[in-house]
Amino acid sequence: MLSDNIKKGPERAPNRSLLYALGFTDEELSRPLVGVVSSYNEIVPGHMHLDKIAEAVKAGIRAAGGTPVVFPAIAVCDGIAMGHVGMKYSLVTRDLIADSTEAMVMAHQFDGLVMIPNCDKNVPGLLMAAARLNIPTIFCSGGPMLAGHLSDGQRTCLSHMFEAVGAYHADKLDESGLEDYTRNCCPSCGSCSGMYTANSMNCLTEAIGMALRGNGTIPAPYSARLRLAKKTGMKIMELIERNICPRDIMTEAAFRNAETVDMALGCSTNTMLHLPAIAHEAGVSFDLDGANAVSARTPNLCHLAPAGNTFMEDLDAAGGVYAVMKELTKAGLLDTSLITATGNTIEENLSGVQNLDPETIRPIENPYSKNGGIAVLKGNLAPDGCVVKQSAVAQEMMVHEGPARVFDSEDDAIAAIYARKINPGDVVVIRYEGPKGGPGMREMLNPTSAIAGMGLDKEVALITDGRFSGATRGASIGHVSPEAASGGNIALVKEGDMIAIDIPNCSIELKVSDEELAARRAAWKCPEPRIKTGYLARYAKLVSSADKGAILNI
Q1: Does the chain have fewer CB atoms within 10 Å around its N or its C terminus?
Q2: What is residue 288's predicted lDDT score, i.e. its pLDDT?
């Protein structure tokens, strides 16, 4: 056992003395030590109940003959951090989580790990750590929030809440209506109830093979979530015994499976940041260039919020991620021979699985669209690519050309939107918000939701070198690479320049001549960094571009 490095032999007597100080018995120290990485805190609704999940995991570990040891991981609530300087500190926590978990595991020599994440950067951060450490590991998330209900009985969610603010500023909703959303859109613990980033990543954790069935979809308040946690605790002991490790599971073929499920589910565009970063830690090549090929052969089967009016609890009732995967196997779109954290292959996992609701999960013969949920666009505005959630774009905006409205920060853009200075047909450009320029690549749910709430989502596009929430809908194109702070062409756009967007053909073009762009580049100077001290300043110096997953360069 790895833990023998801290438990056995006369040389380790000092180490044992400290383990005895923790109250461990000889019987407990004779068993595998399993790290339980709990992301519990009291500021994130998706994490407020993870102490209960951790206790259930510990019970499962003990039942199967292991000794559980809890230690923490941090997590930021993107919704609470949204719209102010706090959002600069969201994406950057992904690396803090991975690094701090690595430090704890290497320092204390655990034999295996159960990761308990739930919200946005916490999930990929722990997946990165799992791939990096490569000891037997399994995930059990906290699960999704239930959908809310407005006073008239209409179901609702957080993306509706953000759009309600836009409707309020457009005089389409009064204060009492806004308060109705405020009080009722988030009714329980759990990750917000649509196919936003947290739920996208929890579903893809299941699809890639690192969690048991239901990890991505069983609602947080359900007792089934506690049973899942206990079973996960039991399962880690089998993985330790068989020495099944994350890199045995997270292979190149497994990442292709995850990307295929991503396209079928209509996941958040943030998966195009996180999957490359996780793959990097696993030693697997993954880049944006292959995304359109996967999308071209993968039909979109689900329209969960914000793309439609179904929620995570509906997906769970329909059979969950496994039911989506079962549909995909009908067309041979998944490699089902791969081993997973269940100890079985995908083929074995999917045996007997049925799609219980063809409205929530469309049969593969009747998809929402023949192409997947995400598209990567390229052109002179984004030579290295940019990303759009095409399954949440109105048909009217799939092809669009309009004048640029240029803003050098999210704050300036949202002020203009709320002041009704954005007109139908405009293309809002928000720059210097990328991984380096932000720094931290802020998530911009406020401007996109304001545009949607004002009823302009079928007439206005938004382009940024920052990123968008999974709760975003409309022609919102993010991750423009290279970013403005690195001298990308988005830095050269001027007010009124025409921009042509063609999502079906995966292109985005700034209608300015090469000669004019060269002249503008010669005159361009990168603005001074907004933040020059602390973690963000260090992050800005190390971070790569969005098309590389915003990984840190060593």
Answers
A1: C
A2: 85
